[in-house]
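Format is sequence with structure; example below:
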Amino acid sequence: MPASNEKTVKVSVTGASGQIGYAILFRILNGEVFGKHVKIDLQLIDINVDKIQRALHGVALELEDCAFPLLNNLTLHSDPHTGFTDTEYCFLIGAKPRGPGMERKVLLQANGEIFKTQGVALNERASRRVKVVVVGNPANTNAYIAMMSAPDLSKENFSAMMRLDHNRAVNQIASQLDSNVNRLSNICVWGNHSPTMGVDITNGLLDGSNNLKDLLNKEWIAETLQPTVAKRGAEIIDQRGLSSAASAANAAIDHMHDWVNGTTWTTMGVPSQGEYGIPENIISGFPVNCNGERYSIIQNLDIDDVLQKKIEVSIAELKDEQENIKGLL
């Protein structure tokens, strides 16, 4: 492709020296999100601590050593105000992890300060069309804080990564049916990116025509599928001694790829406008379609009583999280 026709996009990544950042950057520069002919100005951001900034510099050296043809420019930042300058696509990964004995409320407050600062910086410096995916947990509420701290940006610019729950659910179903994941469609996950989320196979299909409700045992759905997805993160920590980094990075790539390139029926954590009785501005997992520019929540789906109760529990958790951080906004 002639150089004059090449497109260049600006991409910012926070927490870029961490495990998820390390797992995602090389794949972004390999063209897995924006395509093999789109060059990237990559703006890496991490906190202003000497050890972390040295690690960030080390990551940058590795990126340079890969000689990625798509890497147009690489800059390192400790201040999101510079790191978000004119950014069009933003992965908010960096967040304070929950330590032993730490109350969730304390974690919410600590991360709330981080994402408020980032929301303000996005409001001041980012492209007005920026697409933001929040990966750092608690992702939905962190996305809500960033969104509410950026009043000059559209609320539709902000999203939370529910795709990891979605991918986990799809894989469990495919394994149960001895099928490839590509044969499944119309599956989604509602609510919070937490153990309260609700897996929904009501409209799920195998090969585009066979309803999953007729193929999967109700007891397996309730007693295996839902608990496995809900507890998968804890299981990985137990087995690996570390949280899921590569699968989270993969889910973030899937999320942004589909938002940018378009897809039918996936899960995104997006702000409610009152759909399905979910209060306005709560960032919940919804089934969505993407057209390459915008997402749209799929409307008029039937929600049975069992799923409705799961959604209500998860939304109650999100409302409680909002209550805990309301003093920040």
About this structure: The two ends are 47 Å apart (CA to CA). The CA atoms of residues 2 and 37 lie 10 Å apart. The chain is about 45% helix and 20% strand. The longest strand covers residues 263-271.
